[in-house]
């Protein structure tokens, strides 16, 4: 990845546009030349939400665009506020406002990750002010601008927008995660305790997946973070939801290889996304 590498790709909606926007902020796997991490690359790659952009790609044929990051979330995380920084990682005085979240302080997983879950530090050095600025300017900001534009355009066209922020999660929590070292459900639907979308939208997704036999929780332990917080305004018809899929259903978490469950997950998500898009079209 050089300075000329774009930060994201958009799969444009085909046919009759639906009032739905999808984004996959964590599936990027083009590692920038200036990353200069010390942790083993394959361990670091376990932070990726691998295959998520491919699993959701068929939404474009259903009328909804899909934005996906090309840079890895371990380089800079679009699902964190630009103020969610651990300044002890930086050599020099960071000039902007800083408001580190508990994820940053307790788990080293802020805007720029310090720690990889259970596997130690990403860097054996401090980052320069210039490289932090560079990551924000070339990756974080363009990704946010692209998502804001997709949602604004959708809202302008239809008077309403439904945004699905797509992720995957490790099968087990660990000592550092919100839930501790316990097996996770198949799916987690996050609406930040009912603040980022109308209740019926959360219920539609949850009920659909439960009817297919999946174990689904709501806001437990993942409520959704910056991408659903920042662009949601349910009273103004802007609805955002975070969807977390358990990786054990479709991939090997260590090698990132697809497993035999992958094709079934593709079919599950196609049915789910048809239901989401039908719901949103019926509102308009
Ligand atoms: Zn994710």
3D architecture notes:
This protein is of the alpha/beta class. The protein has a single domain, classed as Zn-dependent exopeptidases (Aminopeptidase, 3-Layer(aba) Sandwich), CATH 3.40.630. The chain has seven helices and eleven strands. The strands form three sheets. Strands 1-3-2-8-11-9-10 form a seven-stranded mixed beta sheet, with helices on both faces. Strands 4-7 form a two-stranded parallel sheet. A two-stranded antiparallel ribbon has the order 5-6. Strand 9, helix 5 and strand 10 form a beta-alpha-beta unit. Helix 5 packs antiparallel against helix 7. The chain is globular. The model has no long low-confidence stretch (mean pLDDT 95). The protein binds zinc ion. Zinc ion binds next to loops.
Q: Assign the CATH architecture.
A: 3-Layer(aba) Sandwich
The H-and-E topology, N to C, reads as EEHHEEHEEEHEEHEHEH
CATH class: Alpha Beta
Ligand inventory reads: zinc ion
Q: Determine the number of helices (DSSP H or I, runs of at least 4 residues).
A: 7
